[in-house]
């Protein structure tokens, strides 16, 4: 324990509790800075902070040893280019052009690439704003949007990579069947065809990919560079063939049952470069898809297939854990690959439209082989492009799964992934991904898988754009990406584009994906470790800050209206150990208003004191208290030379703008022994959370210890509050409050209001400003579920005898006395359901007029400086004891009592200190042995009878 110098305990502030704890674990500023920034110079594998910091300089030797060996070309350009070629470049561009026509095809490519370009801008902005660890897009989103959205989107992105891998493998198997399977009913030497034969081929390809990926990312990078070279050569051969090959007829595949039968072998025309052919392919001619049982083709189906082939922009980001310099490689490699593939696709679409008939484009998706100068090149291109894309997706999915496991997003569910890592290669994650790909392959149809793939990737792209849009809108100072071609406009267009096109492709798949995402968000919000949000940072906090600041500026206190008044509470607490029920009760009474728990620590902030401000270290303990109590409150702590001065500070500085406390709540100043609700056996607040190695946090005054606050100071605090134009409540006996007993007991039935100033009772206005404020608080409590079953009772205490009713009044209607009648009308106009109870003995036995002048001496009602006599003091005490007896007789079934608090004596009066003592003594006698009691003094009208 380290205690602040020049700090003394204030165990008995006026809040029915004790003083806060000493400081624990204080550390100096320099050591904290070293702990924060020293980790920047450690290898990535040794850093405990998964969020990372901004990279400094080039790749270090430590990164080389930790597996970061890939550069821009091998680690980003090649995987992205190959993933964006995928099965589309040699297998499905003809399907797209043949159905959508050249104009719509070019439009779809532009739409797809605009979405991709803006999403790439968002990826580049995030990746150049700090160090990017393994996990790619999941890492970026989770460290920006927080664990809930990051984990859910990361899971969907993992599934998207799984589906993408299945798509690539299906395309690869389709190329094998087309080139080596039966072409006219079963040639000798050809491989067999059929649904389960195709599944066998797909499984074999998937297993080969598994073996390659198990070798490691470096082997994958070397493989991808070689495959990209092969694909580019094969693609060039296709362009040359379009320009050089003349007209020919191409056979329609045997499996195309839409146009093919046993007796008639259908043929399609390849015309070579021909303007007539180009003109016939300019507009849409949607037909049927022969690979999916003749399903109708439309714009959405075509776009889904097209977009599934260009979803590989994250392939480079997925390799972030193996890149030497992710912040530089990801933007340059991804953008260059996007431009390269866009030009290739546009050229291929134009050449296909100018050389191939619509019939052939729609009915033979693999016509490029027969029309190529070297048909083998197309076969090689199909196999290599799809194989490499599958490799990219398989390794990408395993890296995302590994990142999810390391972050413990799903708790211990994925521990097997962390344990199954060998030399930075997540073996267990790769095998798990391989098994899920096997399940996807059972779907069969490539075009069906393509739509699912597109929707999942679009959802992950939408989240990436949303992350960038949110962090840009918040204006966070630490968002300073070195990638300069990013604005909130690009993120917004990318987000809207992906959201719209996702539902255009397939509304059912899109709705299911969004629903799954939201379910994951809620599940992770309730079950994921809470520490991750604080460790990574969550954009929700930045967005809330941005919006709250904006609305606070719009909230103008000059426009306040009594119709919309609500209590904004400042509860002054010395030690929460002894006032847990009061903290909960005030939380009920705030009615959606501001609730601040304030605490004064007595001490001096000396320039010669080397220790930190004690309130800084204690603040986290008070926040933990708020979590334990489950109340919706803020905490304000201050260090002051005296309790009175500290309370003045808290009243002035608590809240912000128009959201400032209007009601101050204090515990009562009495000699009752405090009760430790954190240790009491039957307490609902029992906990050991605030016991630090045997030392209790939030200590309070023990039996026999002297109070640090004098009665005069306490009364002056009450006077300060009223002079600062704040309502005040003094709460007594709240250690007796048991909400559980109130909820289940049939004996407790009432909430009582005594709207009479006991020190100066009058009949003129039974419901003045103070009484209205008291009634408002009672109504608020009566609205809550636990308190709703209780009846609200208002006690009318008339001090002067009433005239007897006339004969006419008695005969015409039930007679109501004037004060009771006025009170009844007022309650009705205020829409308050309460019963009125007369106290007959009040006017008969109490001799109120006689005591009224005596009691004035102890309040601010009198400006006289007359000296108090012993006789008057004794008479006043006896009077209060008699009033107390009357109230106790009516309170056997009362849960809580609201009473009128008279203003304290004025500072200018003679014998001020003595009057303060007697003022407190009279309040003590008044509230002796009552149920939980609130003495209330309001200063402004808080009720309205108008609409």
UniProtKB/TrEMBL annotation:
Cross-referenced InterPro entries? AA-permease/SLC12A_dom (IPR004841), SLC12_C (IPR018491), SLC12A_fam (IPR004842)
Signal peptide range: none
SLC12A transporter C-terminal domain: which residues? Answer: 581-671
Keyword check for Cell wall biogenesis/degradation, yes or no. Answer: no
Keywords from the named record: Membrane, Transmembrane, Transmembrane helix, Transport
Q: Which residues form the Amino acid permease/ SLC12A domain?
A: 82-570
Q: Show the GO MF annotations.
A: potassium:chloride symporter activity
- Does the keyword Transmembrane feature in the UniProt annotation? yes
**Subcellular localization, as worded in the UniProt entry:** Membrane
Under the heading Pfam families, the entry gives:
AA_permease, SLC12
* Any one annotated GO CC term: membrane
UniProt region (Disordered), positions on chain:
1-25
- The source's superkingdom equals Eukaryota
Membrane topology is: Multi-pass membrane protein
- Which BP terms does GO give this entry? cell volume homeostasis; chloride ion homeostasis; potassium ion homeostasis
Which parts pass through the membrane? Answer: 73-97, 109-132, 153-176, 196-215, 227-246, 296-317, 338-361, 373-396, 427-446, 452-473, 485-502, 508-527
Q: Which family does it belong to?
A: Belongs to the SLC12A transporter family.
* Protein name, entry field: Solute carrier family 12 member 9
What is the protein's species of origin?
A: Aedes aegypti
Q: What is the lineage of its organism?
A: Eukaryota, Metazoa, Ecdysozoa, Arthropoda, Hexapoda
What's the gene?
Answer: 5564530
